[in-house]
Every structure is written in structure tokens, then in C-alpha cells.
Task: inverse folding
């Protein structure tokens, strides 16, 4: 088993949205700053009904990183 597996997504450093590596501009906030140093994935389907989305300040449905940085 390799020690480090390449993550399938990178995280927007501004809104924590997880996007595929080929994405250049964040579809959520328009930022072009991404990091691969993230951990914990949360999928928000219904923003209005999700307490987690409220707690994380998420306003759009999608995949988000719980934590940025190493
Ligand atoms: Zn973003």
C-alpha cells in the first residue's frame, strides 16, 4: 500500500468546495486558489435542512472539505 494516495479532489481555499483537479476556477465562489491539503469530506445535498451546512457556513449544495491544511 502506498503511503500517500492522490486525492481525487482539490479543495477551494476560500469556500472549501471540493472539485476535480482539472477545474481552474471554483464554480461556487469564483476563486482560483486550491489546495490538496484537506481532510474530511462532507456532502451537502439540502442546504436549508442541513445543520452541518449552517455550522460550516455553506450556502450551496456540493462536496466540501471539513478541514484545510496539513
Ligand atoms: Zn470556492
Result:
Amino acid at each position: 500500500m502506498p503511503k500517500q494516495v492522490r486525492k481525487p479532489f482539490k479543495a477551494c481555499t476560500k469556500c472549501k468546495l471540493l472539485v476535480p483537479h482539472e477545474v481552474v476556477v471554483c464554480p461556487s465562489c469564483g476563486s482560483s486558489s486550491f489546495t490538496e491539503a484537506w481532510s474530511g469530506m462532507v456532502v451537502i445535498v439540502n442546504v436549508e435542512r442541513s445543520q452541518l451546512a449552517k455550522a460550516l457556513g455553506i450556502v450551496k449544495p456540493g462536496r466540501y472539505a471539513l478541514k484545510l491544511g496539513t
